[in-house]
Amino acid sequence: MSASTKRAASFNARGVWAIYRFEMHRFRRTLWTGLAVPVITTTLYFVVFGSAIGSRMTEVSGIPYGSFIVPGLMMLSLFQESTFNGAFGIHMPRFTGTIYELLSAPMSPFESVLGYVGAAATKAVVVAMVILATAHLFVDVEVAHPFAMFGFLLLVACAFSLFGFVLGVWAKGFEQLQVIPLLIVTPLTFLGGAFYSLDMLPEPWRTVTLFNPVAYLINGFRWTFFNVADVSPLISLAVTAGFLAVCLGAVWWIFRTGYRLKT
Questions:
Q1: Planar angle of CA 164, 48, 207, nearest 5 degrees
Q2: Model pLDDT for residues 60-87, shown as the tens digit of each residue
Q3: What is the structure's pLDDT at 53?
Q4: For residues 106 and 128, what is the distance between their CA atoms, to the nearest angstrom?
């Protein structure tokens, strides 16, 4: 039996479950904050965008404006929650020095990443579903392709949780953990059509927006709700899969080289 076959046969499910449970327990300790904040934020978005702007812009692409912004709101929170949870989960062991216990444990890099990223993605999906439930209090939202919606949600959550994991390894302090999410991810989300259709933009801004990868993620997710999108859902799926592949490659490189894991 080869070495790779032996590792596959000795998959450390207990270790993965231990990391997952630890991370989810941290989420439960801050459950009130973790769920109240997205509910309040979603309510404020509906008050501002749904009532103030929505009264002047009734429909976008044939969809009531209040319903149109729901997928964008879910993606906005999903990006933030996935990135922060993925980054914080691996950064805390580095900060406290317990990363050496993880590195010396009888677990492969894949098993360690599976525990952290699985928990981060779970928390982000829960928050996104809470936002969807909150949105139903204000507008009627029907999901045209529910299985595709959940699959897309899970794929994006895993991709950004991996991105957060890379960020958590790269950051030297808690300040750096917030730099990329706040200064890059959030602006790209607002400029990526979270609250408007790309067809509403004049040239050359519409063409410029097509270089924003987040625009494809939002449009692909919106298609699962309304069967309407500014770009092909297949292109959106390809961009999401490509981003996931890049993040997987970065994580593989980190464990192969030990980049900032032991320093």
A1: 60
A2: 778 888 888 889 888 888 888 889 888 8
A3: 64
A4: 34
Tokens of 56: 């002047």
Q: Cβ(244)–Cβ(152) under 8 Å? A: no
- DSSP states of 135-182: HTTTS----S-HHHHHHHHHHHHHHHHHHHHHHHHH-SSHHHHHHHII
Q: Is the pLDDT of residue 7 over 60?
A: no
Give dist(CA 212, CA 91) in Å, integer: 28
Overall pTM > 0.70: yes
Cis peptide before 181 (omega within 30 of 0): no
- Which of 160, 147, 156, 159 is CA-nearest to residue 224? 147
Which is more confidently placed, 14 or 49?
14
Burial (CB count <10 Å: 0-12, 13-18, 19+), residue 3: exposed
Q: What is the mean pLDDT of residues 226-234?
A: 86
pLDDT band at 131 (very low <50, low <70, confident <90, very high): confident
Q: What is the mean pLDDT of residues 230-248?
A: 90
User: Which residues touch 62 (CB under 8 Å, ≥6 apart)?
Assistant: 228
Give the pair of three-digit tokens for residue 26.
Answer: 């941290």
Say if CB 88 and CB 238 are below 8 A apart.
Answer: no
List, in sequence order, the alpha helices (H) in the chain: 3-9, 13-29, 31-45, 65-68, 70-96, 99-104, 109-135, 146-170, 174-180, 186-190, 205-209, 213-226, 233-257
Sign of CA dihedral 236, 248, 16, 90: negative
Distance in angstroms (rounded) separating the CA atoms of residues 211 and 215? 8
